[in-house]
């Protein structure tokens, strides 16, 4: 039987399927079910910087209402706060590590490098195998330069790496002025991996009630193609691990990402739709494809069709439709 094992963030995984940060990974019971059905690792549901800071500020406000508070107390609070939300998250890490054998990757959704970075150290102490930073600031400030926006990523990575020895990955968006350069700079700055790409909340408009509402929450089966492009371009150009995510709904799309050069994939939407048992279906289909192709290990074909190894490297950079639409017939 083919060997599906792979290496991601320095972690050895039994197969390339990681369950992405979501409501699927917010309890020990759910994580155990995912492991039983073949998940190779899980990324815990993100804890948000705003939630952490709000609890810190609320606790400090409560303290200021009491008499005889020593100034040193505030120094302690700013460095080692113990909020209910934080304790709950750390307990989830500890209990999940005790309950399953697959890697547990913690996740923090942040917008700055302020206040919250102490939590990375607590996450490491709790036993997490790695930390994923889910980071994006929508560049709507007309007075902020590209460098000012993107420097926040490097500041966060630097602040976190000063706290921990854990492998740290960044889940990023494709919305950068020079994505390849940015990933290379993150790689040079010590990122253990990048996850491409975030899926964001998008507004929609109700034309009958003339109001804003939520756009489609789950990804679609064709949403993986932009990730495929960038996985293929970056393979072998950076040292860090690459995980592909968004729109990966089938064994075929997983195989495509691996051929382009991904070390692993992260799934969520399709597991919501099909249930945890679908992971077993996906792995069996990958096994069958590998046997059909004569591949014994994932490394036999990982990156085989990356830009560097493709016989048509320009295909990864071709963005105009003219050639393809010229002879298109409905």
Automatic annotation (TrEMBL):
Sorted UniProt keywords: Flavoprotein, FMN, Oxidoreductase, Pyrimidine biosynthesis
Annotated organism of origin: Ancylomarina euxinus
Signal peptide from the UniProt entry: none
Domain Dihydroorotate dehydrogenase catalytic, chain residue ranges per copy: 4-290
A GO term from the CC aspect: cytoplasm
Protein name per UniProt: Dihydroorotate dehydrogenase-like protein
Segments crossing the lipid bilayer: none
Pfam families in UniProt: DHO_dh
Cofactor(s) required, per the database record: FMN
UniProt keyword Flavoprotein present: yes
PANTHER family referenced in this protein's UniProt entry, alphabetically: DIHYDROOROTATE DEHYDROGENASE (QUINONE), MITOCHONDRIAL-RELATED, SLL0744 PROTEIN
Record CDD domains: DHOD_like (cd04739)
Taxonomic lineage: Bacteria, Pseudomonadati, Bacteroidota, Bacteroidia, Marinilabiliales
């Amino acid at each position: 039987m083919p060997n599906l094992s792979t290496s991601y963030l320095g972690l050895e995984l039994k197969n390339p399927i990681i369950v992405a940060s979501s409501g699927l990974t917010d309890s020990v019971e759910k994580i155990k079910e995912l492991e039983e059905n073949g998940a190779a690792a899980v990324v815990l549901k993100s804890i948000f910087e705003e939630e952490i800071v709000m609890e810190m500020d609320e606790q400090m406000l409560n303290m200021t209402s009491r008499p005889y508070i020593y100034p040193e107390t505030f120094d302690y609070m700013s460095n080692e706060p113990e909020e209910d939300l934080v304790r709950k998250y750390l307990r989830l890490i500890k209990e999940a590590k005790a309950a399953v054998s697959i890697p547990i990757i913690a996740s923090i959704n942040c917008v700055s490098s302020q206040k919250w970075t102490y939590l990375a150290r607590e996450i490491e102490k709790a036993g997490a195998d790695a930390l994923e930073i889910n980071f994006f600031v929508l560049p709507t400030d007309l007075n902020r330069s590209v460098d000012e926006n993107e420097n926040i990523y490097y500041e966060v990575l630097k602040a976190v790496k000063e706290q921990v020895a854990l492998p740290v990955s960044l889940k990023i968006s494709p919305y950068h002025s020079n994505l390849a350069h940015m990933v290379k700079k993150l790689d040079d700055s010590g990122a253990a991996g990048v996850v491409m790409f975030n899926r964001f909340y998008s507004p929609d408009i109700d034309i009958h009630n003339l109001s804003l509402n939520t756009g489609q929450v789950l990804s679609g089966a064709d949403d993986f193609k932009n990730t495929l492009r960038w996985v293929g371009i970056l393979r072998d150009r950076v040292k860090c691990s690459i995980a592909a995510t968004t729109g990966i709904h089938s064994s075929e799309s997983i195989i495509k990402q691996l051929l382009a050069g991904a070390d692993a994939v992260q799934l969520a939407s399709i597991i919501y739709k099909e249930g945890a048992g679908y992971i077993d279906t996906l792995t069996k289909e990958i096994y069958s494809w590998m046997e059909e192709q004569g591949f014994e290990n994932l490394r036999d074909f990982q990156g085989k069709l990356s830009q560097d190894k493709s016989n048509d490297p320009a295909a990864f950079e071709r963005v105009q439709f003219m050639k393809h639409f010229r002879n298109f017939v409905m």
